[in-house]
Write a structure and sequence with these properties.
The chain is of the alpha/beta class. It is built from eleven helices and ten strands.
Length: 366
């Protein structure tokens, strides 16, 4: 019975994964899902799945089971009057299932065919782990090596002539016991830093920031699947850049001009001071509506090519469409795509484009 239940449960999980994959764009674009996460679990509403169950009809309501019936006739009579107002009978229900963020990341990776990220850097701080490497004569009973202990006891009894083949009882004594020994080994851990930069000038609306928030969350979820440790840095900029916390990053709105190079300068400074590229895997993502002060563009390209790109695993530029921004900066980044393997540019006009943008950013596997 337990095996049958396990098979049914696995089959149901496959159905759920299939439903989530077929509606992945809808789930990915929902900002409220991010707020719902607790203990790394999120609730996924799946109205398309109907769980089969038996329902008891009302006594004397007719239908099949109360007498003769015809093919297609319902088991019970319809409930209520469809033309009436508010009713007192139960209606349909939406099933909610809980999936872990790791499961969602796996589903997203399968659907988008995302390659596994290969870490390149190792952090200077290492973790210590126990590795069992040999045998010793003393130790706790939980580490006793039963096979070796039994063989030593058997050899001793045979050599001393006390072993009886008709009554093959082997009784280890203290001298027979063997225990696993271990030693501590130091293992470097792959770690990563994600640096998010966002234009918060007056041309960036709240909707554009919500798109950035949702996409950043799923980028985080995928990258964290491949690293033991993640640090996240947030930079906002208009004409001047500053490092902020996560809440400020998504809720600040400024006015005035835009100078993208200020964000790239600060990003480079933070990397040099806190995240040596030979020890860290570095990911930098910049989101903007593409509006920039014209004389600043050559300086931006210089910082990228000469200073940032040699240090980062990946630089992603995401351009959200704004009714106020010019959008011209995308063309300058696009010119770099053929020359620099770790540069990705993506247009994100609305929430429906988030899934495709994630594939563009993470499809390189860097």
């Amino acid at each position: 019975m337990s095996q049958k239940i396990e098979r049914d449960q696995q089959r149901f999980k496959k159905i759920v994964r299939g439903k989530v994959k077929s509606n992945l764009s809808k789930y990915i674009g929902r900002g409220e899902m991010i707020g719902k996460k607790g203990n790394d679990l999120v609730s996924i509403p799946l109205p398309q799945i109907d769980i089969p169950q038996f329902r008891y009809g009302e006594k004397g309501s007719g239908g099949v089971g109360q007498g003769e019936g015809q093919p297609g006739q319902p088991l019970t009579a319809p409930r209520g009057d469809s033309d009436a107002g508010a009713g007192d009978q139960p209606g349909g229900h939406i099933l909610e299932v809980e999936l872990s963020l790791e499961e969602l990341a796996a589903i997203m990776g399968e659907e988008l065919a995302l390659p596994r990220i290969e870490p390149r850097g190792k952090k200077n701080i290492v973790t210590t782990r126990d590795k069992y490497t040999g045998i010793r004569q003393a130790g706790p009973e939980s580490l006793r090596h039963f096979k070796r202990t039994f063989k030593r006891a058997l050899k001793r009894q045979i050599s001393s002539g006390v072993y009886d083949p008709k009554n093959p009882t082997v009784m280890p004594i203290r001298e027979d016991k063997q225990y696993r020994s271990w030693k501590e080994i130091q293992k470097p851990e792959s770690v990563a830093c994600i640096i998010y930069m966002m234009d918060v000038s007056g041309s960036m609306t709240d909707e554009q920031k919500e798109i950035v928030r949702v996409e950043s969350f799923w980028i985080d979820t995928w990258i964290k699947k491949h690293y033991k440790g993640i640090q996240t840095i947030y930079i906002i900029h208009d004409a001047v850049a500053q490092e902020v916390d996560e809440h400020t990053f998504y809720h600040t709105r400024e006015s005035g001009g835009t100078k993208i190079s200020s964000a790239y300068e600060l990003c480079d400074k933070i990397i040099n001071q806190r995240f040596p590229p030979d020890q860290w895997n570095l990911y930098a993502f910049h989101f903007s509506d593409g509006d920039n002060w014209g004389d600043d563009i050559p300086h931006c390209i210089e910082i990228l090519t000469e200073r940032l790109l040699p240090k980062v695993n990946l630089f992603g530029y995401g351009q959200v469409e704004s009714p106020y921004g010019s959008g011209e900066f995308f063309d300058y980044i696009k010119e770099m795509l053929g020359e620099k393997a770790n540069v990705v540019a993506s247009r994100i006009p609305d929430r429906e484009a988030i899934l495709g943008s994630i594939k563009e950013f993470l499809g390189t596997g860097r």
